[in-house]
Amino acid sequence: MSKGATTRQAILSHALGLATKIGFEGLTIGRLAEDLGMSKSGLFAHFGSKETLQVEALRMAAERFIDTVTKPALVAPRGERRVRALFERWFAWEQSPPLPGGCPFTAAAFELDDRPGPVRDFLVQTEQDWTDVLINVARTAVHEGHFRADLDCEQFAHNLRGIMLAYCHASRLMKDPKARARAEIAFEALVRAAHNPSAVAKASARRR
Amino acid sequence: MSKGATTRQAILSHALGLATKIGFEGLTIGRLAEDLGMSKSGLFAHFGSKETLQVEALRMAAERFIDTVTKPALVAPRGERRVRALFERWFAWEQSPPLPGGCPFTAAAFELDDRPGPVRDFLVQTEQDWTDVLINVARTAVHEGHFRADLDCEQFAHNLRGIMLAYCHASRLMKDPKARARAEIAFEALVRAAHNPSAVAKASARRR
DNA sequence: GACACGATCGAACGATCGTACTATTATCAC
DNA sequence: GTGATAATAGTACGATCGTTCGATCGTGTC
User: Fold this and answer.
1) Which of A61, A124, B84, B135 suits B165 as a labelling partner, its CA being 20 to 30 A distant?
2) How far is the CA of B190 from the C1' of C15 (A)?
3) Roughly how many angstroms between the first and final C-alpha of chain A, as a whole number?
């Protein structure tokens, strides 16, 4: 890797970690330059605009997410086991040392939801990709016969995200030591509900 | 109300609405002054520091939250009905016109979770109060016999928050038109699980 | 060893930040 | 109405913001 690319990676890595603590809008060229012991203009030259830097930091986060969460989960067997692997790997991501403030996507999601622009657009795409992964892995679990056939997989993914968000809230803001345990309990309830015939299915079965 | 108090309320009201869109850290004295047609120094004199303004804006939000959500829900009968009322009122809060960017507590929660100080402290207290309301109303539903006796009410409140956070994410960031419907489905599943004997209880019952 | 070129620096730009002062204006009790 | 006091304006401060520009540095090539 060339000298410039190395520096660029170092900048983005530091920016990403910092953004988890002070937000993506809170990033400043001056602060980054000082932290990395280089000049504002030297750092700035790598990106041409702060907005580009923000997008590139998010892009690095997306790449790391795949390496930390998605890919490792693929070693688990298809179906429920892989759903569990994704859930477990996500905690490793959220608590990884390079992200001292937690998941950057979660932070960005509530920071940028009302600020149109390329940064928000990229974030939405990344979040949609992650949702699609969850939906697909749930679908596979249905096909494998682990989850019930009439499971609403999109709803499953939606509820799973709620569990993750509630964990971030409880853990990061409320500093609740039971946050992880609560997430696990909620997850087990979600999986259990995905096993059992749905209430709707049961009601129509009773009617027969 | 004196002139000063009126202006102060107007400032805080505008600041609160603006904060839902650009965040509490994104608030600036200059922007607020311009929006309200007054001088920076005149506006500033009401608070003495930006930090105080942020806390006071959050305080106003907390008061409005009680008026919009908590109090109206008290007219519903104790128990499950009141749980449902709180859930329904919360959507009215999240979508109320004075909060164009959604729930300010949710936005602040992920913005300030890593920034110690009085603003964060006040937010944590407010969020804890809201959690306690949810826990207590679930407990009442247990006492009324609407929810099963061994329900973990704190877990119930935790999961309910997850449903709300997932709604904000889906609605505000992803602009998913099904966000509200997904929240309702998740809520009904949560309530249904609170009705039925728990899996743990069932397992021990089977063992008898 | 000269050269080209990418990487970095230093200085400066206008804008805006939060905040401090002093002055001026508006309000309200008497 | 007058006088005390509250409310607002004006101006300025040092700091920092994102960005620009030209100079300088380092690296690798012929």
Assistant:
1) A61
2) 52
3) 67
Q: What is the pLDDT along chain A (208 residues), one digit of tens a residue?
A: 787 789 999 999 999 999 999 999 999 999 999 999 999 999 999 999 999 999 999 999 999 999 999 999 999 999 999 999 999 999 999 999 999 999 999 999 999 999 999 999 999 999 999 999 999 999 999 999 999 999 999 999 999 999 999 999 999 999 999 999 999 999 999 999 999 876 666 666 655 4
Under 8 Å CB pairs connecting chains A and B tally to 131
CB B81 within 8 A of CB B102: no
- Three-state secondary structure string covering A136-161: HHHHHHHHCCCCCCCCCHHHHHHHHH
The model's pTM:
0.95
Q: Show residues, CB within 7 A, near nucleic chain C.
A: A 2-5, 7, 37-43, 45-46; B 2-3, 27-31, 40-41, 44-45, 48-51
Q: Is B136 within 8 Å of chain A by CB? A: no
Q: Which residue has the tokens 């202006």?
A: B7
